[in-house]
Amino acid sequence: MQERLGRDTPVTTKIERRSWRLDVSHAVDEAGSHEIAAQVAWPVREDGVEPRKALCCLPGGFLSKAYFDLEVDGSFEFSFVEHMVRRGFVSICLDHLGIGESSRPRDGYAIGVDAIARANQAALEQVLERLGTGDGSPPLPDLVSVGVGHSMGSCLSVAQQARHGTHSALVLFSFTTAGLPHFLAPAELELAEDPKRAHAEIGERVRNLYGAPYPARASNAPEGGNAAYSVGTAPARAERALQQAGTNLLAVAGTLSMIPGAYRPYADEIECPVFVAVGDHDLHGVRDTPSMFPRAPEIVAYELADAWHCHNVANTRTKLWNRVARWIETEIDAPTQTCDSIS
Fold first, then answer.
1. Is the pLDDT of residue 82 over 70?
2. 107 class by beta-carbon count within 10 Å (0-12 exposed, 13-18 middle, 19+ buried)
3. So what CATH class is 3-339?
4. Which of 61, 121, 214, 289 could form a disulfide linkage to 152, CB 3.0–4.6 angstroms apart?
5. How does DSSP classify residue 341?
6. Nearest-CA neighbor of 312 among 40, 72, 147?
7. Which helix (H) or strand (E) holds 166?
8. Helices (DSSP H) in 179-272: which residue ranges?
9. What is the pLDDT of residues 222-234, one digit of tens each?
């Protein structure tokens, strides 16, 4: 059945959701049981068209998987998942090991970026297998995955793609390899542009900086203030939605995302299309994005107006979500569908 996509209208009003805990112990170099919490959603369509693309969503620092499926006062107005699933995508949202509802490795200082990427990859493979065999009903085989990340989660999406090459494309909200040096103490700045040393020493640096591998908040942040990044002109309920999605920081991965050059070796290996979105009031700009992916066949650098760091609560969020949906529909080959050109 052929369907014309590229439009900014939903294809269904019905959504199925499942919450799963996935054993990823085999991917972690630490004895014991390790589980990743996943929230999966897919469209239920009366026309019989099966979804072809799955969005694997990884949250940023101090935010859980709920960031992509925000609910406040009974409304899903800030939910990326709700919007994208209604447009025909499958959504897979994961809590990294150490945050949210996932288990916490005992030695959080030793769980580096590659280990986190392995665990997320193992979780994604299990979700796709479950969906393909009908653990979600009906079976959804042969799904094509797209990596979606926010901030630290964008960095971890890039790392996962560099190591495992699973995704057909990457959608990265607030990604940069330039770090956030203005947020760093002198000790962390010493590691700038030396990724090998940064990854080798980050555990001890985090121990000195936070005193814990999974800190509840940044050292200079007020109680409960981490998830509520500035929402700018968005309504107050946007901040409440972020607070509800708040969790502790995955300190090793989060601190590395602020160190200039720490994730550059991963970005250098990316060979799939990349879409990077940054808010016009974000923590960094989008100007240097093309140079960050020297091997990517296509790079879209997009600046969203009237948006701060958490784009899913921006007043202009649906413009971004629709732009991303059109890009994915156009970029990834889907023989049963044709697409409008991206505007």
1. yes
2. exposed
3. alpha beta
4. 61
5. P
6. 72
7. none
8. 186-189, 195-210, 236-244, 251-258, 264-267
9. 554 555 577 999 9
Q: Where are the chain's structural domains?
A: 3-339
Question: What phi and psi, each to the nearest 5 degrees, are found at residue 104?
Answer: -110, 115
> Measuring CA to CA, how many Å separate 263 from each of 11, 118, 156, 159?
37, 16, 9, 8
| Amino acid 13: pLDDT | 77
Residues in a beta bridge with 129 = none
Cβ contact 79:68 at 8 Å: yes
3-39 pLDDT, tens digit per residue, is 344 467 788 778 999 999 999 999 999 999 999 999 9
What token pair was written down for 33? 């049981």
93: left (phi over 0), alpha (psi -120 to 50) or beta: beta
Diameter of the chain measured on Cα atoms: 59
Count of CB atoms situated within 10 Å of the CB of 249 = 26
Residue indicated by tokens 């929230």:
39
In this structure, the chain runs to a length of 343
Q: Return the number of other C-beta atoms located less than 10 Å from residue 102's C-beta.
A: 26
Which run of H or of E encompasses 43?
strand 35-43
